[in-house]
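Q: What does the assembled structure look like for these inputs?
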Amino acid sequence: MASQGFRTDSARRRPARSLPAGQRETDWPGVRLHIVTGKGGTGKTTAAAALALALASGGHRTLLAEVEGRQSIARLFDVPPLPYEETKVAVAPGGGELYGLAVDPKAALLDYLEMFYRLGRAGRMLEKIGAVDFATTIAPGVRDVLLTGKVYEAVRRRETIRDGGAEVERPVYDAVVMDAPPTGRITRFLNVNEEVVGLAKVGPIRNQANSIMTLMRSNLTAVHLVSVLEEMPVQETADAVTELEQIGLPVGGVFVNMVREPFLPPSALEAATRGSLDRSEVLDGLAAAGLGRRSRATGNDTSHAALATALLEEAAGHGERVAMEHTERGELLSLGRPTYELPALAGGIDLGALYQLAGLLGEQGAA
Amino acid sequence: MTLDIDTLLDDPATRILVCCGSGGVGKTTTAAALGVRAAERGRRVVVLTIDPARRLAQSLGLAELDNTPRPVAGIDTSAGGALHAMMLDMKRTFDEVIEGHATPEKASQILENPFYQALSSSFAGTQEYMAMEKLGQLRAQADAGEHDWDLIVVDTPPSRSALDFLDAPQRLGSFLDGRFIRVLSAPAKAGGRAYFKVMSAAIGTATGLMTKLLGAQVLKDVQTFVAALDTMFGGFRERADATYRLLQAPGTAFLVVAAPERDALREASYFVERLEDEGMPLAGLVLNRVHTGPAEGLSAERALTAAEDLDDAGEHALTAGLLRIHADRMRLSEREKAVASRFVQAHPAVEVAQVPARPQDVHDLDGLRGVGADLARSGQPVLSV
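A:
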């Protein structure tokens, strides 16, 4: 969709800001559209939000767009549900701004029709006879063209600002981050061109699909993959890399989420998994720490012996898990993509946690 | 309240078990584990999986996506049960619906139509619709005595939202049978005369716009598709409605699967409420991958303080490490309990079964047996409200 039109975006009404601060050293110079996908449950939305925040820091303006109608951005940033309008959801360290947008296919379609056909009341009639429903839910591929089209428009939108005496034109957003559908559906979602080509050989939808595809295949775009160190998500990540490369989309980085640090040195981990840790040493340690007596509060058996057995059992599970994570990390590294690690946060994800994760992504060169 | 899985599985009145929930919570594994357990307890089971992980599929002997239930090897059949499993091929299922309801000539016309091809392979709701269709077929085959299955376990597609499973079939069904598609194909038939006058402007705009947006060819494809489908009109919505009624009938039980995380439980809540609204029988919630510990009596705080004391004293590094492992696990467990108890408070009548987290993924029959045993293990300390 073209570079103007659409609804009034609050991003355009704000006072012009100064030109961006000096470019940072990142792994993705020149990339303006970051598409984030991952298997369900890997923390894809959290990673996308942290990346958007990291990209905004240092005086940049970033848009985080969601396309699945879940209102995840509003929940994550603890703001009211987002309207179909770019809304400021957070400020980033160093004067940056983060905007959020929940893309709605129906609103996007009506916008689009309004822009090109000046429909007015006819738009509502279309809705009445089911044409809007048809286009946004049934017509194969059209929904995805509308969703990606809105994001495409945000990437390309430009504004004119006054820098000293001169008028300078620049993009409204330094970067756009799309919280995309999960890996299982990502290739089909992004491959809008292929989707539509089977259906529409000519016409505006087809042209639109072509323009979106050109942007997504260019070096302005990177498709990042979020995984955790478990077998299925890692396998899906590897599959997604292959599929994305097949359709010519630029694969970005791998975000390893919810990483937990081992609590024991390697030799002890191995012994823990084998069940050969020194039990008497653990018993002594518990005695020294004053732990291990019958607790009246819970009635549980927390004698030295029972506690030692329980802790050794937990340590064995921990050892097994660390070993598995080691294997899976190897699999992810073998994909040969830049890799970023995000820790599991015991307190869960809140706004503070997002800033912490954003900081870590910045340090590792993701933004 | 604890969900008693074995009673549910053993009850001959239980004919269909639907596992639903948001993506990444372990629906497919749960469905497979229930199938294995029911079969080994004497039921004759068929498991319909949608998109299993490769190694899980292999463990069920599902090397290819061929849309036909295959016997699963390695099942203990001494109790008289059996297990079949299949992976859904949505395009093939759609093709079969067409082939089953149209003359060979018409069927091939439809199958070759570009709009049909796009619709059957890429519409986001087709997978849900075809999962329901396949479920209906399996049930009909069982009822007709073609197979001796007495329990069908269904995994649901990895939808945008768990509710899509219920809505998409009707959405597609009502589109295929609905007014709009008739409007597109034959505007003059869409209504009476007075009505026609009012609607004609909108219809004209609609067809005009469709032509502009998608090109004239698309509209022609849609019209040809509709014309070819003519004999099947009514059939789609009817079939979707019939399967929907099957889901409301006694003998069907829904299991909502969730991980003890905020988002997954929120989806589970929506689903539970929706099932109640629709009068669909909810058997309970499977809370998957729960971190419980053998030493629940020792809190995270105490364990961490003790670990620090040991570090300060400069001794017993091993014990300090073990205490930190424990504290980390307890913290996670406490957070899980907090989100789970919110669900329990909101839905006190929903029975819950917990499956402890495993250090490794499940991808063989023994692993599935283990999950099944965990599902059935009742009387464990459940969530404290």
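The CA atoms of residues 135 and 164 of chain A lie 47 Å apart.
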